[in-house]
């Protein structure tokens, strides 16, 4: 298999990348790791692409930062493996480290990025649900102006995002988890590595003692994009998390998705697994992640 | 249009003339004759083409030559030192960690990358390190044992692990 002809451009600044993208229009594609670009390209995807714009030479985009107010800020060049193994991420937001670790294989995670995972916008992408559940923002540099897009608005369809042709997604910002806030993401797949999710469920909870003060449940691989299941989160508010409440929440989540049948699972099975894994994700959020469990 | 790219390959600074759409794997095998790195799925799934890029294991089939400009690349040909096999390579032989051998180069590179960042991996960590390397012969048990043995062997001799 041979890649189609394209020219390779390696801008040194974000400004330069943005100008290139603006000038070259629809014929240019941005890459960070390229792990979701080159394999499909070998199969004939992105046939219009004449230019690859590699962001890897732009300084400053490969950092993981944490701010008490803003939360976790992950640059678009941060490799998944570095998120998975980052002491800072594991301490401040372990569910994000876990989501990163679920993706593909060690080799792919040493090249691929979390931003690339969500920009590829595969319905089963593991980066999506945890960012949506935690109300993360995607910082986008446009040619004329910049914007911050809530993760739940970022995805617009199968392999489609809200990014315009000349926009570059530069950072992911995940709000800080307060003392009474918990988050978890669980992926259900047949294999542990190199597999796509049958379903993926992320839960974010704000607790008031034993009562839920606020909650968000997000689902992957059961619609054209990763989605928020607002009704499931709202249902939990004001309730204590006993078995009956968890089951009822799982059923609401199950009824708010639109899965398809494919080689991995039937739509019916996916829906039922959303019920099961919604319960497990909520339990996991409450239980938390221990030290090296990721 | 072909361009010149410079990088360090197995300890030697080299310059190559390559099309921008050429993968590192094709360059290694077809242009440089380094056929130790194997071509399998060509989609980043099987790990047969694993090389080390700046110390990290990556799939060379989904890496452009252009992407490794200025980087340090190690292939399986660059593992042995002064013609001597490393403990990792010897253990693969002693423990019968391969049968057909097609996955071996990739396995060695993934294991080397692991041992360089973690000299005392648990079985779980070893299995995670080779999760992107498919082997259809061994069932993985012998491979895991070989990697464990390197760590133990070096420990017993009080040497630093140089995989």
Structural account:
The complex is a heterodimer of chains A (294) and B (163). With 294 residues, chain A is an alpha+beta fold. Chain A folds into three domains: 7-55, Uridine Diphospho-n-acetylenolpyruvylglucosamine Reductase, domain 2 (2-Layer Sandwich), CATH 3.30.43.10; 64-174, 2-Layer Sandwich (Uridine Diphospho-n-acetylenolpyruvylglucosamine Reductase, domain 3), CATH 3.30.465; 181-287, 2-Layer Sandwich (Enolase-like, domain 1), CATH 3.30.390. Chain A has twelve helices and 14 strands. In chain A, the strands form four sheets. Chain A has a five-stranded antiparallel beta sheet with strand order 4-5-10-6-7. Chain A has a four-stranded antiparallel beta sheet with strand order 11-12-13-14. Chain A has a three-stranded parallel beta sheet with strand order 1-3-2, with helices on one face. In chain A, helix 10 packs antiparallel against helix 11 (243-255) and helix 11 packs across helix 12 (267-287). Chain B has two domains: 3-78, Ubiquitin-like (UB roll); 87-156, Orthogonal Bundle (DNA polymerase, domain 1), CATH 1.10.150. In chain B, strands 2-1-5-3-4 form a five-stranded mixed beta sheet, covered by helices on one side. In chain B, a hairpin with a 2-residue loop joins strand 1 and strand 2 (12-18). Chain B is globular. Chain A binds chain B through residues 1-8, 10, 34-35, 38-39, 42-43, 52, 54, 56, 79, 81, 104-108, 110-111, 192-194, and chain B through 1, 3, 19-23, 26, 42-45, 47, 50, 53, 56-59, 62-64, 66-67, 69, 110, 113, 128-133.
């Amino acid at each position: 298999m041979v890649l189609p002809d394209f020219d390779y451009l390696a801008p040194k600044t974000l400004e330069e990348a943005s100008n290139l993208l603006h000038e070259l229009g629809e014929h240019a594609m941005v890459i960070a790791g390229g792990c979701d670009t080159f394999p499909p390209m070998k199969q004939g995807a992105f046939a219009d692409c004449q230019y690859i714009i590699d962001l890897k030479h732009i300084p400053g985009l490969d950092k993981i930062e944490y701010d008490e107010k803003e939360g976790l800020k992950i640059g678009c060049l941060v490799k998944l493996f570095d998120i998975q193994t980052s002491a800072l991420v594991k301490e401040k937001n372990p569910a994000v480290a876990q989501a990163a670790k679920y993706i593909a294989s060690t080799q792919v995670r040493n090249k691929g990025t979390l931003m690339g995972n969500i920009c590829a916008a595969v319905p089963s992408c593991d980066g999506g649900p945890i960012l949506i559940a935690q109300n993360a923002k995607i910082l986008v540099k446009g040619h004329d102006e910049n914007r911050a897009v809530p993760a739940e608005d970022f995805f617009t369809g199968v392999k489609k995002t809200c990014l315009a042709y000349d926009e570059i997604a530069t950072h992911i910002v995940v709000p800080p988890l307060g003392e009474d806030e918990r988050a978890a993401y669980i992926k259900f797949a047949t294999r542990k590595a190199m597999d796509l999710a049958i379903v993926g469920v992320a839960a974010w909870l704000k607790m008031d003692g034993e009562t839920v003060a606020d909650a968000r449940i997000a689902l992957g691989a059961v619609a054209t994009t990763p989605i928020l299941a607002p009704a499931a989160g709202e249902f939990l508010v004001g309730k204590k998390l006993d078995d009956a409440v968890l089951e009822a929440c799982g059923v609401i989540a199950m009824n708010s998705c639109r899965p398809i049948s494919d080689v991995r699972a039937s739509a019916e099975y996916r829906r039922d697994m959303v019920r099961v894994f919604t319960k497990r994700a909520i339990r996991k959020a409450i239980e938390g992640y221990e030290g090296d469990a990721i | 249009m072909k361009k010149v790219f410079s990088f360090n390959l197995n300890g030697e600074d080299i310059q190559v003339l390559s099309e921008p759409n050429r993968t590192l794997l094709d360059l290694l095998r077809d242009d440089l004759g380094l056929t130790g790195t194997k071509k399998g799925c060509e989609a980043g799934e099987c790990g047969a083409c694993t090389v080390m890029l700046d110390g990290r294991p990556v799939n060379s089939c989904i890496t452009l030559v252009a992407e490794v400009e200025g980087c340090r690349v190690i292939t399986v040909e660059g593992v042995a030192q002064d013609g001597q096999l490393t403990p990792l390579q010897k253990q693969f032989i002693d423990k019968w960690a391969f049968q057909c051998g097609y996955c071996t180069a990739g396995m060695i590179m993934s294991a080397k990358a692991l041992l360089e960042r973690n000299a005392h991996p648990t079985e779980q960590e070893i299995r995670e390190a080779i999760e992107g390397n498919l082997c259809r012969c061994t069932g993985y048990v012998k491979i895991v044992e070989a990697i464990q043995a390197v760590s133990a062997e070096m420990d017993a001799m009080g040497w630093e692990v140089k995989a």
